C-alpha cells in the first residue's frame, strides 16, 4: 500500500518530466507545429470593441444568438443587440432584466458579493417565430422568462424556474440547445455547483452517480439525427491508477426519450457517453484529454464524398506543460462508438471490461425507441448502470491536425469558417482558435484523404496578455471574427490580404481568403473580387512559382490548379544556383516524397527518377555540357531532398531558407528542452475523488422553495416569506 502510494507520489512529482518525455517521444512521429506565417501585434489588427455599459465590472459576455444582421450578446442584467457589421448598438431592441430587489438581497445573505448578485443572461432561444425564451443566473437563483418579439422589441410575458437549465454562477461551464420543441441543458442544479446534470424537463441524469457525470465542465451541445450530443470533460471514473485524470467525452440522449417505466419516469433511458481520443499515436500515445471547445457540425467534401465532422480544441491538464491540439471527429465515428460494446465494472476495485454481447438486453439500450415508457426494467436498469461505452471515439486519421506546445498559452475556443471556396473551386476550412492569452490563431486545414495537417496563417494579439478568449463566432466577410472575453467583446478583422505586398508573400500566406490578382498586381480578398479570372492561389503548397509568369502572358485560371496537378519546380528558388534558367519538369511529386522518406539511403539514386529535360544528343561538346548539367541537377536534387526532409519535419520553414537546416534542428530541440520550466502544481495526488455530493435531488426540492439545502438559510427564507 505504502509502496504504491510512494510510486504515485513519484509519478506525480515527475509528471511534467514524463510529459516532456512523452512529447519528445511523440515528436519523433509528429512534431508540434512551431511556425506561423504572420505574427500580428494588437496595433496591427483592426477591431471594434464593445465593453457593455462602460463600467469596469465584467459583463460575462456570451454570444446568445446570431443572424445575418445582428448578434445578441448576453451580459450583466442586459441583452445587447449589436449590428454584426459594425457593432453599433441598437439601444431600442435591448433587453434590460435585473434581478428583483428581494432576489439580490437573498443572494447577498447567502454570502455572495455584489457582482455575483446580478442577473447574467446565459441562454436565449427562439422557441417559435416571435417568441423567445431567455434565462439568467438571477443572483444565484436561475430564472427564465418568455418574451414576445415584435419589430425588434421585446415584451416580457411570464417567468419560470431556471434551475437545471441555467447555471447559478456565470463562470460555470454550461451548455444548452433548443431542438424539436424542447430545451436540453447541461449545467448544475444546485447553489454549490455539486449537482451536475443533463436535463430536459422532467428527465435528468442520475443524481450523485459518478458513473453518469463526475465534476463535468460542459463545452457544447449539438443536434444530429435523432440525438442531442453534449461535449464535455470530466473526471474519469474508469481511470484505475492513482490520482485522478480528466477525460473528454461526448454524451448523447435521444430527442424523443419519454423516460422509463414506473419510478424511472423522470430519468433518461438513453443517456450514454464515450471518451474522445485526441492523441499522437505511438507506443505510448500522447493524449490531449481536456476538451475546451468545439465547432458546429461541418459538412466537408473530400473529392466526391462528403463527411460530417466537428472540430475540437483539446489541451493537456492545467498542471502539465501547455500542450494544445485541434482534432477532427467524424459524426459517423461518434455514432460507431455508441454502437460498440458498453463498459462494465464488476465491483468497486475491479477492472473495467467490455460487456459481452450476450449480456446486453434487447432492444439495445441507449437507442431511440418509439415509447421508452414501456421498455422492460432490465433494459432501463442496464443503461442506468452502464452509461459508458467501451470504445473511445478516434479522431479523424488518428491524430490531431495541429499541435502547439507553449508555455504561454493554451487553446480555449474554436470557430470555423467552413468550406471556403478557392479560385479553383476547391474548398478549405478556415479555423480560428482562441487562446487563454488573448490571441487568435488563423489556421487553414489543408488535410486531404491521405494526410492530416493544418497550416497556421497568423497569430494575432486581440486582448491584453492574460485575458482568456471565452468564445469565438464567425461574422460575415472574409476574416471577420467575433471574439468574446469576460469583460470585452471584439469584432476583429483577420483578413491579411492587404498586409502582403508581393505576389510571393500573397501566395505563401496560403490563406483561402486571399489571392494574387495578376491584373491589379494586388493581393485581394476573394470575396471582394469581381472576377476570378486573373487570380492565383496555392493553398495546398504555398508554391509561389506561378508569380514568375510575366504579366504579359497572364494565365487564365483554368490552367492554374492548386491541387492534383504538378507545379513546375523552378530552380530559380535556389538563390545561388548557377542553373537559374533551367526549369525542370517533375514527372510526379511523389518522386520527391519517396526520397524524402529515407534520408539515410543514397540520396542520389533515391531521387534519380526525376525526368531530365530533353536535349539533342550528338556532339561530344553537347555530351559534356549535358553531363555537367546533369551533375548540377543531381547535386541540386540531392540538396533539395535533404532540405525537403527537414522542410517536411519542420513543416513550415520557408523554402528559401534551405541553408542551416541542421543548425535549425539543433536550435529547435535545444530551445524546446531548455525553456525555463514553469512552476507546476504537484498536488494532483491530494485531490480525492469524494467530491462534494448533494444528498438531495435539488431539482425536485428546489422547485417550490427558494432554498432548502442550507440549514442556516432557512431562517433567511422565513424573513422573506
Ligand atoms: C436587433 O435590432 C435590429 C434593429 O433595431 C432589429 O431589426 C433586429 O430585429 C434586432 N434583432 C433581434 C434578434 O432582436
Ligand atoms: C470553465 O472553463 C474554463 C476554461 O477551460 C476554466 O478556466 C474554468 O475554471 C471553468 N470553470 C469552472 C467553474 O470550472
Ligand atoms: C487512441 O488513438 C491512438 C492512436 O490512434 C491509439 O494508439 C490509442 O490506442 C487510442 N486510445 C484509446 C483509449 O482508444
From TrEMBL:
Q: Out of the domains of life, which is the source?
A: Eukaryota
- In this chain the Sema domain maps to 30-494
Q: Which residues form the signal peptide?
A: none
Which keywords label this protein? Differentiation, Disulfide bond, Glycoprotein, Membrane, Neurogenesis, Transmembrane, Transmembrane helix
For this protein, the record's CDD domains field holds: Sema_1A
One cellular component term (GO) for this entry is: plasma membrane
According to its UniProt entry, one GO biological process term is: positive regulation of cell migration
Q: Which GO terms describe its molecular function?
A: chemorepellent activity; semaphorin receptor binding
Coiled coil (UniProt feature): none
Where it sits in the cell: the answer is: Membrane
Q: Where does the sequence pass through the membrane?
A: 620-642
Q: InterPro entries from the xrefs?
A: Plexin_repeat (IPR002165), PSI (IPR016201), SEM1A_sema_dom (IPR042068), Semap_dom (IPR001627), Semap_dom_sf (IPR036352), Semaphorin (IPR027231), WD40/YVTN_repeat-like_dom_sf (IPR015943)
The record's annotation in PANTHER family points to: MIP07328P (PTHR11036:SF131), SEMAPHORIN (PTHR11036)
Protein name, per record:
LOW QUALITY PROTEIN: semaphorin-1A-like
Could you tell me which species this protein originates from? Sitophilus oryzae (Rice weevil)
